[in-house]
Amino acid sequence: MNILVLVKQVPDPEALVEIAASGRDLNIEPKFSINLFDEFALEEALRIKEKHGGKVKVISLGGPKTIEALRTAIAMGADEAVLIEDEAFAASDGYNTALVLSKALEKEVFDVILTGRQAIDADRGEVPQMIAQFLGLPHVGVVVKLDISDGKATAESSLEGAKEIIEVGLPAVFTAQKGLNEPRVPLITGVMKAMKVQIPKVSVEDLGLTRDMAVPESSKTRIVRYLPPKKRPAVQLIPGEPREAAAEAVRLLADVERVI
Amino acid sequence: MDKVVVFVETKGDEPRKASMELLCEAAKLAESGKFSAEAICFGVLSDALKGRLLSCTHKLVRFTDPELAAYSPEGYARALAGYAAETGARMIIAGATGIGRDFLPRVAVILGTGMVSDVTGANWFDDPMTFVRPMFGGKVFAEVAFPASPVVVTARPNSFAMDMPQGINGEYEERAAGSLAGAIHTRLVRIEEAKGDTVDLTEADLIVAGGRGLKAAENFKLIEDLAAAMGATVGATRSVVDAKWRDQADQIGKSGKTVSPKLYIGAGISGAIHHIMGMDTSKVVLAINRDPNAIIFNYANYGIAGDLFEVLPAMTEEIRKRKERG
Amino acid sequence: MDFAFTEEQQFFKRIITDTVDRMVVPKAREIDEKDEFPWELWKDFTKLGYLGLRYPEEIGGMNADPVTAMIFYEQIARGSVGFAQSVIMNILMGTYFVYRFGSQAIKERCLYPAMRGEKVATMCFTEDQSGSDLSATRTTAVKDGNEWVINGTKMWITNGPVADFATVLATTDLSLGAKGLNFFLVEKGTPGFSPGQVLDKLGCRGTITGELVFDNVRIPEENLLGAELNKGIEYLGEILDEVRVMTGAMAMGIAQAAYDEGLEYARKRIAFGKPIGSYQLIRAKFADMATEMEASRLLIYSAAWKMKEKLPSRIEAAMAKMFATETCCKVVDEVTRIWGANAFANEYNPQRHFRDARFLLYGGGTHEILKDFMGRLLIGK
């Protein structure tokens, strides 16, 4: 079995994220880790390998620091890793990200592609499905259980709370959801291997693309500026008798805040 | 005139709230004279639902292919993209529901365009169109410009107003996308409905939590009723857990669970820092406490300084009434 | 000068920080509250292989250099001091002399299982009347035929009551003072070797600290851990620097854990309508804490680097130990001030860091002794 895992290195969930004075950039505390959902994907890949034999290869698109995320994947047990190093593409939109990853995947032999359902920085949840479409493959999203046997897979997808049991032939793309598994902690032997391993890098030119395809001006979509979330204002006390206040509270929550 | 195509998602005999919001948005765009709006749906359509939708859109197209009766990413994407391409759609919009977010990216790639997901705001009249969407779990919002065409968008539920223009009487059309059989490689074996155990606290969008102010374990029923009416998860403070009114798993706070829901309702909770540290990143907080000086009001958007024994049941009733009204 | 960790060290730090966050941090409270050896966590954690940190790859270790080792010590202490002490005892003090001088049979019986977490090791130096003054050691080792007979009582022994084997400091001749000291291996089950009183400690709860009694304990010749007789103090010098710097690293782990608690509280606690972190006096505390922690870390890691490069490091190690541990005590104190009354509540963490930090003042050498020793080195006899 050849299992390919796509991972993204993202800022730590607790890293401070602040909008720069210009509003056009973010100042992010430089603490990074593998995207949480990609960890579930990687763990699942390792389990599939343990059960069926084969190889786990991890691919990431990023800058030079992304090597660390790939090292972590090797420490956990991945057999190979490769970095597509291009900061313009790495900072670009879902379409460009999917495009460059698809080009890399075209050169690979695989039965299963696993990746997280979304990256916790961009929160887009677009790339895996776009890759599936670029490659002409089926996909199953938001997977909480995956069984592989004989060239086909049975996946439990929890798109909307309810569980859909879906069968699909391989090769196929699966996006991992929380609850799929509990990612392992690397053994020291894995850590030692990962510390020494040489991870090959690939440029977008190697994949037949050019850097300027990913600059904001040439992209299908681009971020123009950043906006802060609304700060919690001082509490608004709702007056009136209990029943009145209750009705008004429900109105505010449903019609104004739109949270129910 | 630019054409807007809205994907209408249905659940049972109801349209999804997210789809309804977008039908409103599309109808308002049509009113401006600069856009024409159409709606697409797949699968079975009762007469009642059909009638309702035709008062919300100028044209409703239902795809009758049997392959589209159940959701499949490839099937839905092909049909929607095919229609959009054939009719020269300028915008394709859908609710950012599980299904919407799952298949719209495939639509974008089929049409050779990009997409913007889970938007909370849209500037349709800008050139290029711009959208606002959350990033980093909502810590930051991004304004995204979309110069490519067509524009493919999913919108976060509860982001657009439900103010439908009056007097719409839409045209109805049935179509077949055709040649779907060989194009769909996933097979839905069966659906297992959610067992009714609610979402875990740490992942819940809606939480109703109770504290010592409830006075006795049995009174937690008020919290449970409100939570059930809202589809929320029940939480508790440490003192309530220590008193064994609730399980440790329900505890929100520094030594319990840290939660970050869209809505947190805390009743009978004073707001000890221990608890605050576990919930203060909630998007909207409503606190109910008899004491107008309770600390929790410092961390709330809305507060009711009143008797929770009257407020909670009143809220539950109000929510149930609203649900019935649809 | 390149002050940065190498790419490998940075990677290692990332991994161990994450591992500690996932496995140890969630258990820290319980370990402190129960004050029992955390066997389950021990089993899970030792499976990962970190107990072989300092030993060669050929015998299943990681062959980590001193800098990498300090990174490890800092992180494990940040997770839980009670657990960290047990782990570090197996990694270093409890096994070093076995590794250095033990026969192959002894290594197979003791060292390799200790590296796998299958056996718990400990080191026995301190006695009721001898801590800083090792020359006052009264545990004796008398040669009788081809055996040594050990008699005495050791005190303050980390995991003494649960240890499978102990490295015991004993004198062959009371009149020789420090020059008569040697290390001996005593294994659990040897007649006459038994645990005594267990201590109820202020901090570092989760390690079982207590008395060990040696009553005519007979051990074979080969259990003398040393190439020559009466060179114990000299051999101790081989790991002295590392133990001192390691104590400093642990201090930074505790300081960081406390500092992070302080940060969260400063950001969330509201007083006079604003988070207290907006007030100057609170901000000043963070400025001071961060500066001294940075200085401590520079001392620790540069001392470790000198050890790695086999450059003289005796005085630097002592400096690192002293400065980092004093800094830690200041940090835990400041954090309890930031937390105000809530620091007094056992349900929160700052009180645990406050209690845990106290051992740093004497563990690895009291500051009074260290200052005297450093002054002597600096001024000359």
Write a compact overview of the structure shown.
The complex is a heterotrimer of chains A (260), B (326) and C (381). Chain A has 260 residues and is an alpha/beta fold. Chain A contains seven helices and 15 strands.
Question: Which CATH architecture of the largest domain in chain C would you pick?
Answer: Up-down Bundle
Order of strands across the main sheet of chain C: 1-4-5-8
Q: Mind telling me the CATH superfamily name of the largest domain in chain C? A: Butyryl-CoA Dehydrogenase, subunit A, domain 3
Overall structural domain count of chain C: 3
Through-space gap between termini of chain C: 33 Å
Helix content of chain B: 25-40%
Which structural class fits the helix and strand makeup of chain B?
Answer: alpha/beta
CATH structural class of the largest domain in chain B: Alpha Beta
Question: What share of residues are in beta strands of chain C?
Answer: 15-25%
Shape of chain C: globular
Biggest β-sheet strands, sense, barrel of chain C: 4 strands, mixed
Give a description of the structure.
- The complex is a heterotrimer of chains A (260), B (326) and C (381).
- Chain A has 260 residues and is an alpha/beta fold.
- Chain A has helices at 36-52, 67-76, 87-90, 94-106, 127-135, 188-196, 242-256; strands spanning 2-7, 9-11, 17-19, 26-28, 32-34, 55-62, 80-85, 112-116, 139-149, 152-160, 162-169, 172-176, 201-202, 222-227, 236-237.
- In chain A, the strands form 3 sheets. A 9-stranded mixed β-sheet of chain A has the order 11-10-9-12-8-1-6-7-13, with helices on both faces. In chain A, strands 2-5 form a two-stranded antiparallel ribbon. A two-stranded antiparallel sheet of chain A has the order 3-4.
- The longest helix of chain A is centred in the N-terminal third of the chain and has 17 residues, at 36-52.
- The model of chain A has no long low-confidence stretch (mean pLDDT 95).
- With 326 residues, chain B is an alpha/beta fold.
- Chain B has 2 domains: 2-183, HUPs (Rossmann fold, 3-Layer(aba) Sandwich), CATH 3.40.50; 201-325, 3-Layer(aba) Sandwich (Rossmann fold).
- Chain B has helices at 17-31, 47-54, 73-87, 98-110, 220-230, 238-242, 273-279, 308-325; strands at residues 2-7, 10-11, 14-15, 35-42, 59-63, 91-95, 116-119, 121-123, 129-135, 140-146, 151-155, 171-175, 186-192, 206-210, 233-236, 263-267, 284-288, 302-304.
- Chain B has a 7-stranded parallel β-sheet with strand order 7-11-6-1-4-5-12, with helices on both faces. A 5-stranded parallel β-sheet of chain B has the order 15-14-16-17-18. A 3-stranded antiparallel β-sheet of chain B has the order 8-9-10, with no helix packed on it.
- Chain C is α+β, with helices and mostly antiparallel strands.
- Chain C has 12 helices and 10 strands.
- In chain C, a hairpin with a 2-residue loop joins strand 9 and strand 10.
- At the A-B interface, helix 4, helix 5, strand 9, strand 10 and strand 11 of A face helix 3, helix 4, strand 7, strand 9 and strand 10 of B.
- Strand 14 (222-227) of chain A pairs antiparallel with strand 10 of chain B.
